[in-house]
Amino acid sequence: MRIHYLQHVRFEGPANIQVWAEANAHEITGTHLYRGDNLPSPDLFDMLVVMGGPMNVYEEKEYPWLTAEKKFIAAAIEKDKAVIGICLGAQLIADVLGGKVFRNKHKEIGWFPVSVLPEAAALPPLRGLPAEFMAFHWHGDTFSIPSGAVLLTESKACPTQAFSYNEGRVVGLQFHLESSPASVAALIRNCSEELVEGKYIQGADEILSRKDYFDDISKSMLLLLDNVKGSSLEG
User: Fold this and answer.
1) What is the pLDDT of residues 127-164, one digit of tens each?
2) 8 is catalytic
3) How many whole angstroms separate alpha carbon 30 and alpha carbon 186?
4) Residue 27 domain flag
5) Known catalytic residue: 108?
6) Domain count of the fold of the chain
7) CATH classification at residue 22
8) Which of 82, 104, 153, 230 is 20 to 30 A from 221 in CA distance terms?
9) Active-site position among 4, 87, 108, 139
């Protein structure tokens, strides 16, 4: 399988997704938009992964490559590719599909559980995942569920945590399962100004100390990727 990822800043790379790709002998390539890389033809990959980033989907003036990126994501979906969006990536997919992206009531940073909606438990992306699982979060925005998509999960701080579209071949995750201790440490180094007092904001030491949670999300990410791959092959 050929996997291509879109990276928005130097400190938010594929992490656990890279581990999964290499363990399964999948080809993995990336476009680093922040340094001006050119986007490839969608014919050159089977799965597209859209990573997170501190910018917002509506900041095209500050980040002009967002306009081309949205068209690229739309083209990948149109060509029936498997597409996974994480945090900003999920918001970009929601925007492309006609959803709205807006400020969430709470900024959510740290380790918080995500609950699977009962009607979504048997859907392809979530097969094998428990009814509630731990995830890492770092977001201030959220999204509405696009027409034709299905809401999958929620958390106490954010009622729209994940959705699927096109029979599970397109998945948007507001939360992070791809994160590793190294990738989260890099995120903290570059975005520490966001770690302020808040109902759903944890401190750096608390975040980095949870090796058990890092292990949990790694397993969840691998399972979800297998599920999306399976949906793509079935299609």
Assistant:
1) 999 999 999 999 999 999 999 999 999 999 999 999 99
2) no
3) 19
4) yes
5) no
6) 1
7) 3.40.50.880
8) 104
9) 87
